[in-house]
Amino acid sequence: MSELLRVEGLTAGYGAAPVLHEVDLSVPAGTIAAVLGANGAGKTTLLRTLSGLVRPSAGRVLLDGRPLTGVPVEKLVHLGMAHVPEGRGVVAELTVEENLRLGGLWRRDRADANKALAEVYELFEPLAKRRRSAGHQLSGGERQMLALGRALVARPRLLLLDEPSLGLAPKVTAQIMALLKQLRDRTGLTVLLVEQNVRSALSVADTGVVLALGRVVAATGADRLRDDEELRHAYLGF
Amino acid sequence: MDRFVFLTFDGLSKGAVLAAFALALVLIWRAARIVNFAQGAMAVAAAYAAYTVTTATGSYWLGLLAALVGGLLLGALVERAVMRFVDHRSPLAEVIVALGLVLVVQAALGMVYGNEFRAAAAPFSRTALEVGGVPLLSRYDLFVFGAVLLVLLGLALLFTRTGVGLRMRAAAFAPEVSRLLGVNVGGMLTLGWALASAVGALAAMLVLPTELGLHPHAMDLVFVSAFTAAVVGGLDSPPGAVVGGLSVGLILSYVSGYLGSDVTPMAVLALLLVVLLVRPGGLFAATVARQA
């Protein structure tokens, strides 16, 4: 399997003290990689550095073999990277339809952007019923659907997902995980999934990376993280 | 009664210009959370560009075009060269930089053009047309209404029907998320300043022929009135700016009509004071004002 995302020696943070220390990572195309770890382990900072919102002080990120150093944040979506930030980032003042359109505005291929929009409405029926509702009128689950759907309108190859289960009912979380699996199998989407909810993340992930205090302490198959009691106890606390 | 009718129409005509100028303030406030105190001075600079072009070519319309283009460019320049570098953590820094800009622009205009009043040409007659013996509106008033209406419609279409408008709104509401979605947030900010400055330039072009004419300080009092209108409307709301502009125009027209024009400047300031004391969020504020 070819490698879609590669991270080499990434060190980054806010201000003087780095949050991430020499993080190495490899995500093959068409797989779901779960990034696990306690609060403050650096999971969100890792995603923010990957999408350029935080500048690394050392190391580099390669997408499909191409270094992303110096590529502006707003250009990354052109290269196939979509980032659904923590707290979902739905623009509360805009309607569902406007949020979704925003996700595809950069695309030259208007016909396919419209097709992608229609597909998202098919995928998330509750959104289709609420096209004209403002973002702030949606429930937590609907917001997550909207944020995910908006990322999918860009037809990304790599999806960075930050805590999609946050504040959602277990049933809704399960639906979202099932959907990620379905997208991977059907379209070959690659997902880097940051989760506090270890069980639900490992239920769909192919590989798992455990971060502790900004360092990678384990990187292995998701089934091993699920089954190896010692590993689980040591790093994941259950 | 005739007098009341006349003052009402006159007030609406004044108010239309104030609405446009208030709208320019609202555009920048929405895009950048900055009250552009330099807008009056910037608009006057654009009007001087029009004066130069009209003097050279003899055409009012080429002059108007020069004012609009000059407004666009000046707005973009101010954002790119000045406002972008201001520390946005303190709203006071932005206010002081804007006020400094007023001094610089007005001094520069004084040096280039001198500090005397120059006549500002109107493209249509300012004599009021009579309807049933009552003087109501001049052709120029109709031109003012038409121009302001056109700008309102244009902006409404831009913001609700086009991709650029959607980008501009998204960039203002959620800059980081917008960048992740491929929006060039810095570019949208520049565009917002340019548009607002052009609208301000148009307002100056419309109001100057009805005032004393062109002077580096010609928009000072208009700015205070328009700022009042924008605050009445809630700073965040374009429809609010229009209603605010028309209301302030009417109030000023009644005050100057019934109490004398000497009282008008005081009435503007009193109105601003009352609004800031009673309803600082504006009459149309949908939400509690965000902290800048």
Structural summary, described in words:
The complex is a heterodimer of chains A (238) and B (292). Chain A has 238 residues and is an alpha/beta fold. Chain A has 10 helices and 10 strands. Chain A has helices at 43-50, 73-76, 96-104, 110-123, 125-129, 140-153, 170-187, 198-204, 222-227, 229-236, and strands spanning 3-13, 18-28, 32-36, 56-63, 66-67, 81-84, 158-162, 190-194, 207-212, 215-221. In chain A, helix 3 (96-104) runs parallel beside helix 6 (140-153), helix 4 runs antiparallel to helix 6 (140-153) and helix 7 (170-187) packs parallel to helix 8 (198-204). Chain B is globular and about 65 Å long. In chain B, 71% of the residues lie in helices and 3% in strands. Chain B is built from 11 helices and 2 strands, in the order ααααββααααααα. Chain B has helices at 2-32, 39-57, 60-81, 91-113, 139-161, 163-173, 175-180, 185-207, 220-233, 238-258, 264-278; strands at 128-131, 134-138. Chain B has a domain at 23-217. The A-B interface holds A 51, 53, 73-78, 82-83, 85, 89, 91-94, 98, 101-103, 105-106, 150, 154 and B 163, 166-167, 169-170, 173-174, 176-185.
Remind me, CATH topology of the largest domain in chain A? Rossmann fold
Strand content of chain A: 25-35%
Spans of chain A of at least 5 consecutive residues whose pLDDT stays below 50 are none
The protein's oligomeric status is: heterodimer
Specify the structural class of chain A: alpha/beta
CATH architecture of the largest domain in chain A: 3-Layer(aba) Sandwich
